Amino acid sequence: MAQLQVELVAVEEKIWTGEAEMVVARTTEGELGVLPGHAPLLGQLAEPGQVRIKLSGGEQLTYEVNGGFLSVTGAGVTVLAESASPVTEATSR
Fold first, then answer.
1. If DSSP codes are grouped into helix, strand and coil, which group holds residue 6?
2. Please, are residues 17 and 80 in contact by the beta-carbon 8 Å criterion?
3. How far is CA 35 from CA 12, 20, 28, 39, 48, in A?
4. How far is 54 from 56, CA to CA, in rounded Å?
5. What pLDDT, on the 0 to 100 scale, is given for residue 88?
C-alpha cells in the first residue's frame, strides 16, 4: 500500500516524522482524512484539536495540538502546530 511522508512540527521542535497510511486532523472546516494521492490543500487546525497518524500494521499515534496548519502536497503531509503533545491511553479516556 502507498504511504504518506508525514511531519508533525511544533514551534520549538520536530515532534514526529515518518511514513503513515493515513492522517486525520480536525480543521476549522471539519475533520479531514488524508490518504496517499490526496489533492494539495492548506487547512487551519481547530483549537483544541487532535491529529491522528495511522501507521501500517494498525498502530495509531495521537497528538493534542493547539493552533497551526495542515499542509498537503505531492511530497506528503506537514502539520505545523503551535504546540503538540502525545495522547496516551490513560489521557484519551
1. strand
2. no
3. 27, 9, 19, 9, 23
4. 7
5. 82
Give the chain's mean pLDDT. 92
Which pTM was predicted? 0.90
CA 57 to CA 39: how far, in whole Å? 25
Secondary structure of 21-78 in the HEC alphabet?
Answer: CEEEEEECCEEEEECCCCCCEEEEECCCEEEEEECCCCCEEEEEEEEEEEEEECCEEE
Cα(61)–Cα(79) distance, rounded to whole angstroms? 14
Q: What pLDDT, on the 0 to 100 scale, is given for residue 5?
A: 97
Nearest C-alpha neighbor of 16 from the set 25, 24, 26, 6: 6
Does residue 21 contact residue 3 with C-beta atoms inside 8 Å?
yes
Across the range 30-58, mean pLDDT stands at 95
